[in-house]
Sequence to fold (305 residues):
Amino acid sequence: MKLASVVVSMLIAAAVMQASPGERSAPARTLLPPTFSVAPASLNFGDVNTGSNKMDSLVVTNTGTSTMTIISTSSTNTQFTLTPQTGSIAAAASKTFYVTFTPTSAGTKTAGIVFRTNATPNRDTVAVTGNGVGATLEPLFSVAPGSLALGDVPTGSTKTDSVFVTNTGTLSLVLSQVYVSSGFTVSPASATLAPSASRKFTLSFAPIAPGARSGFMYFNHNATNKKDSIPISANAVGDTARPAFSVAPSSLAFGDVATGSSKTDSLFVTNTGKLNLTISSIQSNSARFTITPGNATIAPAATRK
Fold:
């Protein structure tokens, strides 16, 4: 009995000694959630001339043991911008974010640089400040001439004239909408002008009935007063413009035509009016006569077979 007991003990000991390291249970590792840390806690850019910029940086560190995701970043003041705007930071790693201050006017500017992450809490803000020095940067609207008078314009014709808009400011002038009173058209309908740049806007008047017309050309923009306008006028002279139909010859005689065969002849339609003549359909009251084409649009003074 004692001998058997010794053999069993030796077998158990040998089995323990032969067990591989991978078969031994390891203590469980606890993963800590990502933790947001940023340095410095605030930024002061000091004096920066308007129209120029200055850059500084923030270093974000993940002090947790799982990956931190920077979901988005934003600034509460457009004069402070941040790059990059997203990113991933491994455990115990850091990432640099660059803040740029571009003042557009004199005076102290402040903002919050906001980080949204998957850490807890999921939102952190860094205070930034800077002082703009120099003249205020802004777009300035100028238009010449200050009015347009097209004078007499025959009905059925078109007359054009132009104005020039100039940006006399120091930032881009955005003309978001350019439009005119009824009876006139303008082109283009929008534009963006760099400082010192100009753009031509063309007014068109194409009357179809006689009579005086007047109104305004309007400019919606991002300069101080947001909207400007100039007076416009024209006088339509002549008869009311309309299309006029004329056809020749006034009849067709095909003469003798053998059964089972066909014969063709032509009519010529002329538009003797001042507007486009639209022939929406052409039909015959007998199936034995066919017509081609079945429709047409004829410009003033033009003819179609």
